[in-house]
């Protein structure tokens, strides 16, 4: 202790040399002296792993704990393991006199590496510097600072000795036939298949290539697919393509048909046979599955899928023969492939490709066209999921009929077995699962970059319509395939590669040389760059540079440039690998440490592919202290240097830490062998991971490289200490996602530091409990590393996998210190990046390390329009250092065409890439929204894409069918598989596992993701003939995979299943003894040891083949696959895990494939039918719209259809007296007032078609009959009228009704009248059929009935309800819910009685008593669980739209406000039909909404206009005086629209009163005309001024007939529907315009014939009445306003039609405000929306309006249509 501790001087204190470890007795830890010990030969002989026992020093006192329980590292202070009392925290050189101490002795240097002469470090003594080493840190040794670059080339990089290609001018011309570049990739430059000989030379013109080449795919040349689709498609192909699109089958039936097992298809009754009305469906019976649902049988059409005309009954695709074509009867599987065997292409197929075996519906094969051709001309979906015909019950889907990934993948594989893929000339790449050979002829190999679609939509709108995301998955260092040419390296010398001067893009084949070669145009930013003079070369005829062929960067999609000095922040060096190993008690006891040592040994010295040449390795171990190891080759033994002061991390050595593993092999082997024994007795259980990473960072920060961390548990202490925050209660809740974020910034910061320093961190975790992968995993997530998670590590179970993982991971080609930059063509931008990396700015992806298996995703968005004639280019440039120490820029380029045709986007879409993209994007979402929402989004996306296809790309299909695009037909399956991934599963999964899965997905490559999503299952008991043997290329032939479903397993079979992460071999109970004996060497299943990880090397053909298959499978995956045996029924625990891999089955809380497909289909549209019983007018409309509102609060889009069983074509001709108000829609439709109810409640804009009347239906049927559409049949109510009704409903239900333009999710159909009426019978029958047409799960019936209260005691009577339900049932409709209208709330026993007598559950009986207002009804229904019932009944998925979440709250506030109002506002309505208030319902609603939003209680006084006339004074003076009394008491006077002349004079008198007494006046339509007449008479002095409508030939016709001649709008005599009104100059400062937020124009609905006479306008305006709103031509006066009056406004339009409870229409709001005296304040507040609040004590809607309106003003700049939409939207 007398020596000063140098480390107290600071972190950079002088390093100390350690004296040699003294030899001699009492060296308890010394390994047997072994400088000369024979070492394992360097060859590939794999010695037995060093077992702890083997290396245990003999003299070591075992298990003798130190004073602190651990034989801790030697250099601890006394009291090892904790910072002892000793003041010397550092280490000191061992004094010879110290002598070695036995492990566990109090001073115990718990460990001494078995060194004979190494320095020993003793506690409490400062350490002397290492012999010969320079002082640490202060002056690092020069050799470490300036290491010489290593020599070994990296994979795919130019190899040693290769002549780099010189810059353009003087490059030596490489001979095309030149052998492949020397070095690692000595692959033949060509293709191994004999039948295919691709060009050996770079082909001069990509376009001329493959079409003429021998390597064309069978059945068609890989020419531009568009040509093939439209130009080259022959008739047969067309027929096939269209045939393929129409196979229809039914979804599973109800409970009765469940469990019947697969049914052969098509079964059942004769297709097309109409059901007998009223006959209930036979449970389990099979429907006419082939019948086109909407296709009436009497069409005489041939049945299934044939609606577009007769087509050859080909067995094409998955289409089974149609029975009506005389094909084999139902139940006989189609006999496929007669063509196939005769096809020369298939004849060349290797034997043993049993297409038929598991693929009863081979898809493209029948034409010898192969999958590629199929995809090209197909494009159109291959299957529909239809429903059984009306009345027919639904058959269970035969799993064989749904798209199979096996067939798709095998077809694709077959194509590329025959031919290579030419990257530029062929449109779409092979499937990700296909093993192919790519020829780079201008685009990057798909291994490097794949796009979600290979034709880009020109505009954002088009892109949105397709719903297919635009993105790319880039795997920059992917391994090349067999027979592919290595990437060429281009060296531009000092100047560096040619780049665009504007966007800095690298030279690529897309650069267009112009002006004779003096300039080139950048394909990314279109900038014209000058070609430097010294690089100028003339162009040839085709515009290429003459030296084109010599420059791979002008020919190839992928090249590498040698990076010049400016690309190097520091001198590139070969990669260094540091292993930081946890050596705590757990690590030792679990066997992890020993396995770890073994893994590293095998990696380095087993002779297999190991670390890249030139790599350096370093070791450190940690428990409570950090132990560095000096491994200098000159040492005999490794030296351990302990840094116990974890608060002050430094690197105690420099020179010997990173060493060449081959030079230092003896020392390293020594260390690895002894590590387990050194720490064998270690009792420390808290690994200081944070400190260890800091230490490694300190050691590596100057050169970067790979850090492998081996860690057992949560770091509970030390830097970055973490706490166990996982709480099972959080799982599955919204708070769960907090667990996905790092809990300590320490780790994020450390990860960022490592990323910046180019240190890539791989984590190997061996947790027995929560380890917080989210937090410590940030190290890997930010640095591009991997995480391996061995939960409850069991050395027997997981040891081999761990060793395999280490070897796989570290022997992959590796680049580090990398920067990835993506450039895309003008018009697109990269919107988002997905993956494990760090971004300090918005464009550069920093990848500390990157290996061949890692991929990065990008999301692309439009920021402009793409040129249809140009291509879209994407360039990914990766600047990185190869593992061997060369700085390179690897540039991947791809360019694809643009299109304005939506179908092209679908046709070129790549589903594999899209799935990978969606997975990555979904992972990115998990930090923002709960998993549940992410799942919902994934499902929604699926439905959106498929719906978009059906809507825009598929031809002539029923809206009820789901049609899968050919390229996306596996999408539902893969989407389901993604939902079953641990990252997104619905069940509670520990956050560690979930986060780990997410991180894996984030960097997963496309092929790996497909393997992971859909596991591969290979039967092993069928290895006959050549299966399992190598083919001519040396590849093991695999049996055809089978679909991953338990239904496919045979109990006498053996199956291998793997997903790239797990591999199981499942052995059926009935497996033959021969197989067991041959493969396992046992006689019975029970005798197999399931812990075996390798098959016994038995020498018989079967065993060999099985082993071959396993080996091939293992070699194909980027992770090591460890074998797990699972025996049927014996290993039940393991079988659970095995079953979870069977993704087509129902498991892991997700449905089966079949069910999911039906679900996807179901999700298309839900129908809720509302019928009424007992009497009409009991509030069906309110209940229906309230139901819709509640669904809207769950984010669903709701539309509605009102059926009125009267014969009028529309309500326009109905007298308001008879039928209440005529409601006018935007499109001018005059409809039932209930539609107004829907518009108001649901905040939607309906069309006239949303109102069905008997008249409309009959009219359409009669018109069709006249056209001869019914082919001479007798046209009848059933089926023709009923079919027409159903078609109408289906068509209208899909019309978007809100501003989003998206299809609704739910359609509410209100059937007017009461059930049992003669009028409604056809509709009831149509709905009865409709429930089968759309499926039980999509159809729900709410019956609104009446429970009258009678007698003095108020008895509630259920009889009427029972009887009306009976009527309903008798007509074939069963109510799901019964809404009981009653004046008082329903008594519980009454509810139960109804439940019992009407056969519905009690909770399905809803009590709807009279409420304060209709606004209360939704709340009333909500309280009774209506939503829950509906969600369950219809399987509705709640959507996640934040705005809708608050909708319910807003609504609640509205009703609260309604109940609390006490300030009243008294409005007088002067009208004509005042005794029938229904005829003014919209006006009343508008007044009500406006009053509510100003917190005023509305009181309406109805005044019959004629009562105000002097005539009445004569006849009935009391009436007259009463009327005037009411009028003069009004706070506001409203004159609504109306027809006829009765009461005109009274209205004029009212207007005069309002004007003269400054009472707020609002005149609507006629009311405005009245105001004008009044003004003309009394102010302008135009005696006799009147309306031409009211009197014939008035003296001054100030209102005249001005019909609008419109071809597009019905009723050409009337201005109807939405019209444009433009504010005039005079409107500036007017109240009305301010109320509209100072908009320039408004859209409101009109319904009038008479208008203000333009001739009088000037005169009126001069007298003070301004017309501030005109129509578009300025001819019609739309808005009038009197200046200087508090509110005197007239509008020719009807603003009341657009009022909403939560958004009153501005004119009415202003009127009510003025009547309440609040208008000036309100207008003031509009000028400054931030200023608050005038309208009372509740949060005021009016205030919200202010902000909405200021938004509307902005929108004003857009075109008129936009504004209309925004007004209509919420
Ligand atoms: Zn550019």
UniProtKB/TrEMBL annotation:
Which Gene Ontology cellular component terms are annotated? COPII vesicle coat; cytoophidium
UniProt lists the gene as URA7
Family, per entry: Belongs to the CTP synthase family.
- The superkingdom listed in its UniProt entry is Eukaryota
Name of the protein described by the UniProt record: CTP synthase
Q: Region Disordered: which residues? A: 1-400
Entry keyword set: ATP-binding, Glutamine amidotransferase, Ligase, Nucleotide-binding, Protein transport, Pyrimidine biosynthesis, Transport
Q: What Pfam families would the database entry show?
A: CTP_synth_N, GATase, Gelsolin, Sec23_BS, Sec23_helical, Sec23_trunk, zf-Sec23_Sec24
- Source species, please? Rhizophlyctis rosea
Query: Where's the Glutamine amidotransferase domain?
Result: 1476-1712
